[in-house]
Amino acid sequence: MEIRNFCIIAHIDHGKSTLADRLLEYTGTISRREMKDQILDGMDLERERGITIKAKAIRMNYRDENGTDYILNLIDTPGHVDFTYEVSRALAACEGALLIVDASQGVEAQTLANTFLARQAKLKIIPVINKIDLPTANIEETYEQIHEGLEIYDEPILVSAKAGKGIPDVIKAIIEHVPPPSQKKDEPLAALVFDSFYDPYRGAIVLVRVIDGVVRPKMKLKLVFSGTVYEAIEVGYMKLKTMPSDYISAGEVGYIVAGIKDIHDIKIGDTITEAGRPTTKPHPGYREIKPFVFAGLYPVNSSDYDALKTALEKLHLSDSSLFYGPETSTALGFGFRCGFLGSLHLEIVKERLEREFGLNLLITAPNVIYHVTTAKGVSVIDNPAKFPPYGDILEINEPYVAATIICPSDYLGQILELCQKRRGTQTHLRYIDTKRVVIKYELPLAEIIVGFYDALKSVSKGYASFDYEHIGSRPGDLVRLEILVNQEMVDAFSLIVHRDKASAAAHMLAEKLRGIIPRQMFEIPIQARINNKIIVRENIHALRKDVLAKCYGGDITRKRKLLEKQKEGKKKMRQFGKVEIPPEAFIAVLKISE
Fold first, then answer.
1. Among 154, 97, 159, 166, which residue's Cα sits nearest to residue 131?
2. Side-chain half-sphere CA neighbours of 512 within 13 A
3. Across residues 322-344, what is the average pLDDT?
4. Contacts of 56 (CB under 8 A, 6+ apart)
């Protein structure tokens, strides 16, 4: 049988999952009775948001008009920048890629980024223009953007995935243009791990592309980079569900069940080989997935701590890129410090915890990893509350990203201004055509994880698209902004900000907290502190009880005595009273960067 391994890459909402549905229907992999929209997107969240969160692999059998049988292995990749590494590993498992561009939207930032990734993986790129039946479709302009902007000179295939137009042309192009994989079955086993998922009964199930050799049940398998050895219990291929097979050989995509209890023992990008006859050519490009964004997760009701712990343990089994550990806050009590791949990953995890486990959660302001140099050495810090004292710090390094923005030229001025405000350095500006422009900026990651995407969509009226990649750390003139409520520091409000923005951030946060924290019987000072100096103070005025209400007349000394007694009582309350901080106050910190 002839084999073709391909993936579908596109910007969010350009019709990737819909095209996958039509391909499955056309090849008869799924009957019309079983069919539902976005069938490869198993989570409700994926359907609602219109994005693919987890990569999927599915095998399609197809016979052409000449009677030749083909195995078409489709790998559906995640569609967001947070999952770029997983996309790169999925691309490494293929020989070709369908690049989908929406006829009404044109080339966008992730289209550009995914094309670059596909070129790096040396894939045959087949351009596809989708949604050609929309009233707003501009096919000629999209042609031009693919040719000029992406430098792809093959003739794009015109399709409407929703209506099923052009699907036979797509299948024909895959067969004709995607090169067949090499099938070195006699070589030592080398299989690339491009994804994994968790089954409660069988443990972690590993999705692999076999590069060389053959994998069979009962083989002793070794993970090259982690060095652990397992025995294959079952192997096979994916057709929405697992289909066991006697073996999977070089060139094929399939799965391996090996009784792996912890999904974190499987590293995306690792190479599986035979323990007794290891390969000398592990697949290059492997790296550890590291979290880039950190936030504290706390239950609104402290009694839900154990439920949150159980929920995180269960979610951790199915999400190998989620990191968490216990954390205690003086203001919020017991919770967990969690590491995420990016701000979208953070949103998804929070929403899944609330939906699937019925939890009510508070989340602290997201922050990034800082490398802080002191006289004792370099510390890696993921929580502003753990920063060393100001006098000990010699240098702070923060992570940077290379951002790509594609927008209509009408909004260029506003977008350049936004990036400048976020401490960006422009590195590239190029017009794709007369109406659209590509801008590249180097930005601190901390400046884009909260509010940047919303601000970008706002200034461009929704037309700008955004993508980024990590480019390492750089020194920054950063300070820790601390908030004191009634003379007590609230660690959950601590922020790391640039020195030039510290005063504005302090004023904004203090004013917001003054409006949110309820008044007490005593005056509450809210203070912002930087480097042990108070730079901002706001007061929440005390509620006043009218102690003179009962005095209708009489000597003034009686009234004075009552007022002095009230004054002493308020002084004592301010000294010993505790201020309850409502959940909305912690959400105010999240909005500080917007």
1. 159
2. 21
3. 83
4. 40, 41, 42, 75, 76, 238
Q: In this structure, is residue 509 part of a structural domain?
A: yes
Rg over alpha carbons for the chain, rounded to the nearest Å, is 29
| Both tokens assigned to 412 | 């260029």
Half-sphere exposure of 430 (CA within 13 A, CB side): 10
Of 23-27, 106-110, 293-297, the poorest mean pLDDT is in: 106-110
Give the largest Cα separation in the chain, rounded: 113
Question: Mean per-residue pLDDT for 238-260?
Answer: 88
Same domain, 242 and 254: yes
Among 155, 219, 160, residue whose Cα is nearest residue 188 = 219
CATH number for position 457: 3.30.70.240
E strands in 275-356: 293-299, 323-329, 333-340
Task: Determine the pLDDT at residue 509.
Answer: 85
Q: Is 377 left (phi over 0), alpha (psi -120 to 50) or beta?
A: left
Between 133 and 553, the higher pLDDT residue: 133
Separation CA 425–CA 463 (nearest Å):
22
Confirm if 254 and 307 have CB atoms less than 8 A apart. no
416's CB contacts (< 8 A; 6+ apart) are: 426, 439
Whether the CB-CB separation of 524 and 539 falls below 8 Å is answered with yes
**Two structure tokens written together for 22:** 């039509």
466, 484: one domain: no
Q: How many helices (DSSP H) and strands (DSSP E) are in the chain?
A: 14, 32
Same-domain status, 376 and 356 = no
Query: What is the band of 169 on the pLDDT scale with cuts at 50, 70, 90?
Result: very high
Helix (H) or strand (E) holding 248: strand 248-249
Distance, in Å, from the CA atom of 189 to the CA atom of 274, rounded to the nearest integer, reads 6
Q: How far apart are CA 261 and CA 265, in angstroms?
A: 8
Quickly list H helices, 98-163. 109-120, 139-144
Going from the C-alpha of 558 to that of each of 59, 547, 570, the distances in angstroms are 91, 11, 19
**Cα(386)–Cα(371) distance, integer angstroms:** 12
Does residue 61 belong to any structural domain of this protein? yes
Nearest in space to 367 (alpha carbons), one of 385, 388, 393: 385
Question: Which residue's entry shows tokens 């990191």?
Answer: 323
Where in the sequence is the domain holding 6, given as residue range(s)? 2-177
Report the alpha-carbon distance of residue 345 to residue 237 in Å, rounded: 28
- DSSP 3-state assignment of 521? coil
Global pTM? Answer: 0.73
SS in 3 state form for 477-500? CEEEEEEEECCEECHHHCEEEEHH
Q: Are residues 580 and 484 in the same domain?
A: yes
34-63 pLDDT per residue, tens: 655 555 554 555 555 555 555 678 888 888
Distance separating alpha carbons of residues 379 and 372, to the nearest angstrom: 5
From 44, 62, 50, 45, select the one nearest 17 (Cα to Cα): 50
Q: What is the pLDDT of residues 113-130, one digit of tens each?
A: 888 888 888 899 999 999
Answer whether residue 590 shows pLDDT above 70.
no
**CATH number of the domain residue 242 falls in:** 2.40.30.10
User: 69: buried, middle or exposed (CB in 10 Å: 19+, 13-18, 0-12)?
Assistant: exposed
**Tokens for 69?**
């049988």
